[in-house]
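FIELD: query
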Amino acid sequence: MKVVAKPIEMAAWFTRDGIPHPIKFRIVNEDESYTVIKIDKIICTHTEKLAGNCMYVFRCQSVVEGIERIFEIKYEISTCRWILFKI
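FIELD: result
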């Protein structure tokens, strides 16, 4: 997987405890167009502390442009931002 660290727009649901569960996300391409990717399967979830910021890390699997891909997205708790970290 290659590190891209791009901000994304996410559709997700949250438990009563505030734990997010991603559904699909939208990313801006280089030509300013959008690509929507539906998350087919969440392989694993864990938390990590990166530079003092707590994050939820999701390793997911989806079909992107006809190819099954595994990627990693992160949710930064303090700023409520989603990042496509590796693909």
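FIELD: remark
The chain has one domain: 3-86.
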